[in-house]
Write a structure and sequence with these properties.
This protein has a domain of about 90 residues. It is globular. The protein is built from twelve helices and no strands. By secondary structure, it is mostly helical. α1 crosses α3 and α3 crosses α8.
Length: about 300
């Protein structure tokens, strides 16, 4: 007979495993972003984005072969195409941002992503907003302003693009949420990767340059690191509540700082760290309040 102690132990084991997956995913994403910055010194970010999607799609080939044609069966191709286009814009802006600003600063600004998701859900789905969510949004915006410091520092185009990337990525997630009502998650993943490859290829043609052998190795690494990061994130979401797992991705700020220091001798200043902490606090508040709201809804059911 399974007792409360064994149930608690199983839950704790799942939480530890999810934590390990998310922290490792954060390390992989930070390494991928650092490699993008490294390669972008001599190769245009648009070209890097194309190869990132190409290798990401190739990583999905075994899954596509196993699932067969049914994975692409959909009545909402237009929505898939729109989402892939928005996601491509987000990636292109992010890769350009990485070529313009220090890795730690860019990473800190992308932590605003959950705030944009929350704001988008309010607008798109009419979700009810209480005081804590509005307070968290205002707090997160203050953290982002602290990093950029308009009026005190020259506003860098890279910083603007990093925030724009976070905002468009949030829009993509809202499209994905809408698609989950009628589509299989594997179909959603297959379509976005399949469509982003030709979209970014067309954009890359305007600035095309063939990578050197050394750059090609970096591009392969970018594709592998990104795919593994997404795989580990999906595994964490599968065994733990998303409100528990999502805040752990913020550890990538630590890994990004380490990578930036070792590879580029970059160290985020105290303002960047302060802004990052405020943004993390804001998104954690949102995550915590949403978990409490779900628990209350289950209790009433």
């Amino acid at each position: 007979m399974t007792g409360p102690a064994s149930v608690r132990t199983a839950a704790e084991s799942k939480a530890l495993l999810a934590t390990a997956f998310m922290v490792l995913a954060a390390a992989l994403f930070a390494s991928m972003h650092g490699t993008v910055r490294l390669v972008s010194f001599d190769l245009h970010p648009f070209v890097i984005a194309f190869f990132r999607n190409l290798f990401g799609f190739l990583a999905l080939v075994p899954l596509l072969m196993h699932g067969g044609a049914r994975l692409f069966k959909t009545r909402r191709f237009g929505m898939h195409l729109i989402r892939a286009s928005v996601n491509s814009c987000s990636m292109l802006m992010w890769f350009v941002a990485l070529s313009l600003v220090p890795l730690g600063d860019a990473t800190a600004l992308t932590l605003t992503g959950p705030l944009f998701v929350t704001l988008g859900a309010i607008v798109a789905f009419g979700e009810r907003v209480r005081f804590w969510r509005w307070a968290a949004l205002v707090l997160g915006a203050g953290g982002a302003l602290l990093i950029i410091r308009p009026g005190f520092e020259a506003v860098n185009l890279g910083a603007i693009l990093a925030i724009g990337s976070a905002a468009t990525a949030a829009i993509s997630k809202l499209f994905a949420k809408s698609l989950t009502r009628t589509e299989d998650p594997t179909t959603i993943a297959a379509y976005v990767q399949f469509l982003m490859t030709p979209i970014t290829f067309v954009v890359a043609l305007f600035v095309w340059q063939w990578p050197t052998a050394e750059q090609f190795v970096g591009l392969v690494a970018i594709g592998i690191l990104g795919s593994l990061g997404h795989l580990l994130t999906a595994k964490a979401y599968a065994i733990a509540d998303i409100s528990f797992a999502e805040p752990l991705i913020f550890t990538r700020m630590i890994f990004a700082t380490i990578f930036g220091y070792v590879a580029f001798s970059e160290i985020p200043d105290s303002w960047t760290w302060a802004g990052a902490v405020i943004i993390i606090a804001a998104t954690t508040i949102i995550s915590y309040r949403e978990r409490k709201a779900r628990q209350a809804a289950h209790a009433r059911a």
